[in-house]
């Protein structure tokens, strides 16, 4: 986002934190990003300063004396001028409960301490720009409502003397009636209001009789049982003696707008939980790499008949399950490394039919309806297979008594109308993959949460709640969209839309051939996690390699300068304090141009974002890994040299 996206004056940001040093750092960071900043030290002061200063953005620390950040956020949201101002909450609490509590209080976004100062200014910029877009949208909607009022669209009038209620044709349409077949009254109107909303509607009508403006959103129940959300505005006309004579107003169907607001909120919530899940997975991957590695070394040192060997094998199995869970978390948070290739979805599904048949069992029929001349898409074939398997298993579990699963593909065009109703879809051509079951279906509340990690409708012990969140993450990271359509008792359909590619489908890649497990090359190992660095150095040393270890970029540069002789390979973490792995490689290549580089990370997407995307085909090792996988990957990078 450029400076041109912000107003010409420097927008004011209100910063509330009880820690003076944090306030100073936040203020300096924001001033460098083109903002002015005002400071206060507690939540109560933040509320009063908001009223006095009218800032464009508010930054609140969660933990403050007196009134905390959650309370201050809620207080600001209750103010007429605070309903839409962007609020960023700073918290040292990185649990899902704190995230949910922040959003329930009305926060726009949150950042976990320690703060990433590099992106703080960009984040505030984005929040302000998004707020401006929403403001523009609200202005546009207000102009449309005014035009409808002037054209007598959706207008009504109530005569207090006669009790007559007159509706325009558009009001009849909104309420699901034909003008000739229904005589409206105020009592009938109240009967159409959703039971939960009737008290607030009655209160608004009573307040209007006191001369107060009437403006309210509420739900109505149509004759067919469906529900709409309408926005009502009205004013009471009084006679010279102050007696109400009539009330006139407009009604507007805002169902779609409310749905879009809910979609936007849910997308922001899932994004926040995804960032949290990705961070947790990153830390666990580092821990698992060390534990898995040493378990593997213990196993290799024990004789086959040694009873302790069984314990090591069992530990490895469970560590493998833990690694699988972190991979699912990375998939949901879109923090995994994908290998996108031109892909024919028809060929992918056809190649999986036998396996899917065994997976879903004999009680469930599997039907595949491939589209002719299906366009090629570009995605990671293995991950798309994971998506299909997860959706098939989910469909199977929704049909305990048996049923039918239908997998379809199609070339589709998503138009502007569809995109407006399905944020953040971009209109255009897509390759669709749909999985439909005839199972129990889901209610609206369940579908709202279905892609959240650890949310499951299955009984305890029957699911992790990560299957559909994994699907969501893979589809999003592949540049696509996923939507679910479900009705209780009528089944569920998941539709995935992937962008088409003009490239031809690629043939399956051959697996690398096995080679020797030892070598004599000199390998530079750069890793800021001591446990991982020591493990990797131990494994490589046992294999006959000469190992130079370094805890970071500067230490690595110094070690290379002291070393006499060639360095055949550098194995480096991608994200390290001070100097990234790619920056280190560029620096060392000037002295050792023949040195090969193998990158590793447990949080690959962060490296791509902060330090530039790796070129296609760049050797990469995803944490956690076992010694065997490490040796195999190093053998591949070194060209099978022993």
- According to CATH, what is the topology of the largest domain? Heat Shock Protein 90
The name of the CATH superfamily of the largest domain reads Histidine kinase-like ATPase, C-terminal domain
Q: How many alpha or pi helices? A: 20
| Coarse shape | globular
Radius of gyration: 30 Å
Low-pLDDT runs: 1-8, 331-335, 459-465, 508-517, 604-613
Number of domains: 5
Straight-line distance between termini: 50 Å
CATH architecture of the largest domain: 2-Layer Sandwich
**Helix content range:** 40-55%
Strand content: 15-25%
Q: Please, what is the oligomeric state?
A: single chain
On the 0 to 100 scale, the average pLDDT is: 81
Q: Count the strands?
A: 22
Q: What's the level 1 CATH class of the largest domain?
A: Alpha Beta
Structural class by secondary-structure content: alpha/beta
Main sheet: which strands, in order across?
Answer: 2-1-3-4-5
Question: How does this model look, in words?
Answer:
- The chain is globular and about 100 Å long.
- The model is unreliable at 1-8, 331-335, 459-465, 508-517 and 604-613 (pLDDT under 50).
- Helices cover 44% and strands 21% of the residues.
- The protein folds into five domains: 3-147, Response regulator (Rossmann fold), CATH 3.40.50; 152-253, PAS domain (Beta-Lactamase, 2-Layer Sandwich); 261-332; 341-498, Heat Shock Protein 90 (2-Layer Sandwich); 522-637, Rossmann fold (3-Layer(aba) Sandwich).
- The longest helix is centred in the middle third of the chain and has 47 residues, at 255-301.
- A hairpin with a 5-residue loop joins strand 8 (214-221) and strand 9 (227-238).
- Helix 4 (96-105) packs antiparallel against helix 9, helix 9 (255-301) packs antiparallel against helix 10 (307-332) and helix 17 (553-562) runs parallel beside helix 18.
- It is of the alpha/beta class.
- Strands 2-1-3-4-5 form a five-stranded parallel sheet, with helices on both faces.
């Amino acid at each position: 986002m450029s400076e041109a996206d912000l107003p010409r004056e420097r927008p004011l940001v209100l910063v509330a934190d009880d820690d003076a040093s944090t306030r100073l750092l936040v203020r300096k960071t924001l001033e460098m990003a083109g903002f002015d900043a005002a400071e206060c030290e507690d939540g109560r002061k933040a509320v009063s300063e908001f009223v006095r200063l009218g800032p464009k953005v508010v930054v609140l620390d969660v933990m403050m004396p007196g009134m905390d950040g959650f309370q201050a956020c809620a207080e600001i949201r209750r103010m007429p001028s605070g309903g839409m101002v962007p609020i960023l909450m700073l918290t040292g609490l990185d649990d899902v409960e704190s995230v949910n509590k922040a959003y329930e209080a009305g926060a726009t976004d949150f950042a976990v301490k320690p703060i990433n100062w590099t992106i703080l200014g960009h984040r505030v910029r984005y929040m302000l720009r998004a707020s401006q877009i929403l403001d523009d949208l609200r202005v546009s909607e207000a102009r449309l409502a005014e035009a409808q009022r002037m054209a007598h669209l959706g207008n009504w009038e109530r005569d207090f003397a006669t009790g007559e209620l007159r509706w325009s044709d558009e009001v009849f349409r909104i309420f699901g009636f034909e003008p000739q077949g229904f005589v409206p009254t105020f009592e009938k109107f109240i009967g159409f209001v959703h039971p939960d909303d009737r008290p607030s509607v009655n209160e608004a009508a009573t307040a209007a009789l006191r001369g107060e403006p009437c403006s309210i959103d509420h739900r109505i129940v149509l004759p067919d049982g469906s529900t709409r959300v309408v926005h009502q505005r009205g004013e009471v006309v009084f006679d010279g003696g102050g007696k109400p004579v009539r009330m006139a107003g407009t009604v507007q169907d805002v169902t779609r707008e409310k749905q879009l607001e809910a979609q936007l909120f849910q997308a922001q919530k899932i994004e926040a939980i995804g960032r949290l899940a990705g961070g947790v997975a990153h830390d666990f991957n580092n821990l698992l790499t060390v534990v898995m590695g040493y378990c593997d070394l213990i196993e290799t040192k024990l004789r086959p008949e040694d009873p302790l060997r069984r314990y090591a094998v069992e530990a490895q199995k469970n560590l493998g399950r833990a690694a699988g869970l972190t991979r699912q978390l990375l998939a949901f948070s879109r923090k995994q490394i994908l290998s996108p290739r031109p892909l024919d979805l028809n060929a992918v599904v056809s190649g999986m039919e036998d396996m899917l048949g065994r997976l879903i069992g004999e009680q469930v029929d599997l039907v595949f309806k491939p589209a002719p001349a299906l366009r090629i898409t570009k995605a990671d074939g293995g991950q798309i297979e994971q998506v299909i398997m997860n959706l098939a298993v989910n469909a199977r579990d929704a049909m305990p008594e048996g049923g039918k699963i239908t997998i379809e593909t199609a070339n589709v065009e998503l138009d502007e109308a569809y995109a407006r109703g399905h944020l953040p879809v971009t209109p255009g051509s897509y390759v669709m993959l749909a999985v439909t079951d005839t199972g129990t279906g889901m209610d609206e509340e369940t579908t709202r949460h279905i892609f959240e990690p650890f949310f499951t409708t299955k009984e305890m012990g029957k699911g992790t709640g990560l299957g559909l969140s994994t699907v969501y993450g893979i589809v999003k990271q592949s540049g696509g969209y996923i939507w679910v359509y479900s009705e209780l008792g009528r089944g569920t359909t998941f539709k995935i839309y992937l962008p088409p590619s003009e490239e031809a489908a690629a043939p399956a890649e051959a697996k690398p051939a096995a080679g020797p497990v030892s070598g004599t090359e000199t390998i530079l190992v750069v890793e800021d996690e001591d446990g991982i660095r020591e493990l990797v150095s131990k494994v490589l040393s046992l294999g006959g390699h000469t190992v130079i270890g370094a805890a970071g970029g500067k230490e690595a540069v110094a070690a290379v300068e002291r070393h006499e002789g060639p360095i055949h390979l550098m194995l480096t973490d991608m994200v390290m304090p001070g100097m990234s792995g790619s920056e280190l490689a560029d620096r060392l290549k000037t002295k050792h141009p023949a040195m090969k580089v193998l990158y590793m990370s447990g949080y690959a997407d962060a490296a791509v974002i902060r330090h530039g995307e790796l070129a296609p085909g760049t050797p990469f090792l995803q944490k956690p890994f076992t010694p065997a996988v490490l040796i195999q990957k190093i053998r591949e990078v070194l060209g099978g040299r022993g």
